[in-house]
C-alpha cells in the first residue's frame, strides 16, 4: 500500500496536551483507494484512565466559568475550523471516503455551525423560576411562602462516543452542548476514521479550552469505549452508533447509573400515498443512495408504495438508481462514493443476497461495480416485491439499498412502517399535506418528514423504541447534558 500524504494528528489529547499512545498505532485506510492515510494512536488502559482523571479534575473549575467565556471559546474554535476548512475537508474525505463536495461544503461548515450554535446555547438560560407557594406548618418547620427555581446544572464528566459515518460533525454535536453547559468531556471517535476528530480536539485546545476540559482518545477496537462506560468517574455517556452497541452500553452503564443519551440505528420507512407526486417521492427516497452511500441512520431505506402506483414508482426508482454515477469521490460529478470498509461492503452484499434468497427481486444494482478495481464500492440497489418480514426489510443495511414494499390500505402501511424494532425517522409523501400530517401521530418514530428528506436543525432529534433514548437538536441538546437541581428558599 502507498501512503497518501495528508497532514494528520498522530497523538492522543489528554489534559490539554498531545500524548504518545501507550498501545501503539494502527493504519487508517482510505475507502476509495485502499491506501493508508496515516497511522492513528491506540489508547491503552492507562491513557483512558488519565483522560478520565484529567476531565474529572478540570470539571469543578470549568463548571464555574461564565457563560460568556464558554461562548467565546466555542466561537473561537469555530473560527479556527473555518480557517482550516480546506485541510480538514481533505482529511475527512481521505479517511471516510466521503465525496469531496460533501466534506468541504457540508461536513466542515456543519461542524463550525454546530460549535457556533452551542456558543449561543451557552448564553441560553434554561432555568425555570417557580411561582411562590404557601407551605403550611409541619414538623419540618413553621409555615412560610416558599420560592424555588428548577436550575440546570452540568452532569459532570461526559464520555462522547461517536460513529464512523459523520465523524467531526457528530463530535461537534456532542461536545458543543456538553461544554456549553459546563461539562468536561472525553471523546472516543469511531476506529475507522478518527483523524479529523483528533484535529478538532487540537483546534479546541488551541482555541483556549483549559487543560482537561476536552480529551480525545482513539483506538482500533472497542476496549477504550468500553472502559469509559465502565468507569465510576464518568457521569454520562453520550453515544451515537448501532443499537447492538447502545444496548451493551445501557447494560454496563446501568451498573453505575450513568446518565445515558443514546442515538441508535434506524430503518426508516417512506410511505408513498396514492396521490403522491412521483418525482418528489423518488428524489426523497433516493437520499438512501445519494447521501454518504446510504450510511445514514435517518434515511428512507424502505419505500412503502400504494399498489395503485407501485409499478410506476419502482420503474422510476430503478431508473434513478441506474442514473447515479458511482466512483471516485474526488470527481465533481460523482454521486455515490465508497462505503467505509471491505467489511461494510460485505455486510451490504450479504443482506442483498438474503433478499434474493428469500424471494425478492433486485430491480436495480445488486452487483459489485466492475469498472472500479480498487475501493469499497457498493452500487445503488433497489430490492422490489419484498415482504415486510424479510431480513432485508427488518435489518439496518447502512449502505445504498432501498427496499420497495407494496401496500393496499393506509392501516397496512402504518403497520409495516412500525413493524421493526427501530423508530428513528419516517417519511410520508402525498399531495394532500393534511393527510400526510394526520399520519404522523400513528408513526412510532422520533421524526417524521412530509414530502422531503431535510433536517430542521432546531427540531428535537432522537428515537422511539430501540432507536435510542433522549433527544438532542437545537436547544433540546442543552437539556440532555444537564441535571435539574431544585433550589428552595422562604
Ligand atoms: P458502532 O456501534 O459499531 O460504533 C459506534 C462507536 O461505539 C464507535 O466509536 C465504537 O468504537 C464504539 N464502541 C464499540 N463497542 C463499544 C463498547 N462495547 N463500548 C463502548 N463503545 C463501543 O456504530 P458505527 O458502525 O460506527 O456506526 C453506524 C451505526 O451508527 C448505525 O447503526 C447507525 O444507524 C448509527 N447512527 C445513529 C445515528 C443517530 O443519530 N441515531 C447517527 C449516526 C449513526
What does this structure look like?
By secondary structure, this protein is an alpha/beta fold. The protein has two domains: 12-264 and 468-489, 3-Layer(aba) Sandwich (Aldehyde Dehydrogenase, Chain A, domain 1), CATH 3.40.605; 269-459, Aldehyde Dehydrogenase, Chain A, domain 2. The termini are far apart. The chain has 16 helices and 20 strands. Helix 2 packs across helix 6 (195-207), helix 3 (85-96) packs across helix 4 (100-122) and helix 4 packs parallel to helix 5 (167-180). The chain is 38% helix and 21% strand. It has helices spanning 45-63, 67-83, 85-96, 100-122, 167-180, 195-207, 223-230, 243-254, 278-285, 287-290, 310-323, 342-357, 391-394, 410-417, 433-439, 476-480; strands spanning 12-14, 17-19, 25-29, 36-41, 128-135, 144-154, 157-161, 184-188, 214-216, 236-240, 259-263, 269-272, 302-306, 361-364, 381-384, 401-407, 425-429, 447-450, 468-469, 482-489. The radius of gyration is 24 Å and the shape is globular. Mean pLDDT is 97; it is low at 1-5. The strands form five sheets. Strands 14-15-16-13-12-17-18 form a seven-stranded mixed beta sheet, with helices on both faces. The protein has a six-stranded mixed beta sheet with strand order 9-8-7-10-11-19, with helices on both faces. Bound molecules: nicotinamide-adenine-dinucleotide. The site of nicotinamide-adenine-dinucleotide has 28 residues, from helix 7 and helix 8.
Amino acid at each position: 500500500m502507498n501512503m497518501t500524504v495528508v497532514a494528520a494528528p498522530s497523538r492522543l489529547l489528554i489534559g490539554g496536551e498531545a500524548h504518545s499512545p501507550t498501545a501503539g498505532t494502527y493504519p487508517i485506510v482510505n475507502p476509495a483507494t485502499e491506501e493508508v492515510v496515516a497511522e492513528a494512536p491506540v489508547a491503552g488502559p492507562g491513557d483512558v484512565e488519565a483522560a478520565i482523571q484529567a476531565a474529572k479534575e478540570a470539571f469543578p473549575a470549568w463548571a464555574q466559568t461564565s457563560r460568556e467565556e464558554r461562548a467565546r471559546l466555542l466561537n473561537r474554535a469555530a473560527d479556527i475550523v473555518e480557517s482550516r476548512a480546506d485541510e480538514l475537508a481533505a482529511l475527512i474525505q481521505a479517511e471516510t471516503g466521503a465525496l469531496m463536495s460533501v466534506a468541504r461544503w457540508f461536513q466542515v461548515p456543519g461542524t463550525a455551525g454546530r460549535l457556533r450554535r452551542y456558543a449561543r446555547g451557552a448564553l441560553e438560560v434554561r432555568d425555570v423560576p417557580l411561582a411562590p407557594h404557601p407551605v403550611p406548618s409541619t414538623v419540618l418547620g413553621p409555615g412560610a411562602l416558599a420560592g424555588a427555581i428548577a436550575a440546570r446544572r452540568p452532569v459532570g464528566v461526559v464520555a462522547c462516543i461517536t460513529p464512523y459515518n459523520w465523524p467531526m460533525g457528530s463530535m461537534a454535536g456532542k461536545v458543543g452542548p456538553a461544554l456549553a453547559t459546563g461539562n468536561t468531556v472525553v471523546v472516543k471517535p469511531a476506529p475507522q476514521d478518527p483523524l479529523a476528530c483528533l484535529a478538532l480536539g487540537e483546534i479546541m485546545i488551541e482555541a483556549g479550552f483549559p487543560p482537561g476540559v476536552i480529551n480525545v482518545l482513539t483506538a482500533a477496537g472497542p476496549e477504550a469505549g468500553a472502559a469509559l462506560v465502565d468507569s465510576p468517574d464518568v457521569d454520562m455517556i453520550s453515544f451515537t452508533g448501532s443499537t447492538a452497541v447502545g444496548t451493551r452500553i445501557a447494560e454496563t452503564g446501568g451498573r453505575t447509573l450513568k446518565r445515558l443519551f443514546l442515538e441508535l440505528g434506524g430503518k426508516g420507512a417512506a410511505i408513498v400515498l396514492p396521490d403522491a407526486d412521483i418525482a418528489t417521492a423518488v428524489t426523497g427516497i433516493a437520499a438512501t443512495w445519494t447521501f454518504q452511500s446510504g450510511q445514514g441512520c435517518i434515511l428512507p431505506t424502505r419505500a412503502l408504495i400504494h399498489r395503485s402506483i407501485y409499478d410506476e414508482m419502482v420503474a422510476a426508482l430503478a431508473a434513478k438508481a441506474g442514473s447515479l454515477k458511482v466512483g471516485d469521490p474526488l470527481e465533481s460529478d460523482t454521486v455515490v462514493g465508497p462505503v467505509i470498509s471491505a467489511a461494510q461492503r460485505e455486510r451490504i452484499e450479504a443482506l442483498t443476497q438474503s433478499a434474493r434468497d428469500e424471494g425478492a427481486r433486485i430491480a436495480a444494482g445488486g452487483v459489485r461495480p466492475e469498472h472500479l478495481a480498487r475501493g469499497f464500492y457498493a452500487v445503488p440497489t433497489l430490492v422490489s416485491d419484498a415482504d415486510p418480514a424479510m431480513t432485508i426489510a427488518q435489518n439496518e443495511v447502512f449502505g445504498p439499498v432501498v427496499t420497495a414494499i407494496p401496500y393496499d390500505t393506509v392501516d397496512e402501511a402504518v403497520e409495516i412502517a412500525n413493524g421493526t424494532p427501530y423508530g428513528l425517522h419516517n417519511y410520508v409523501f402525498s399531495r394532500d399535506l393534511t393527510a400526510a400530517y394526520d399520519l404522523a401521530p400513528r408513526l412510532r418514530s422520533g421524526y417524521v418528514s412530509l414530502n422531503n428528506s431535510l433536517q430542521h436543525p432546531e427540531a428535537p432529534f432522537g428515537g422511539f423504541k430501540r432507536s435510542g433514548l433522549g433527544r438532542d437538536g437545537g436547544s433540546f441538546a442543552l437539556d440532555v447534558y444537564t441535571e435539574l437541581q431544585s433550589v428552595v428558599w422562604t
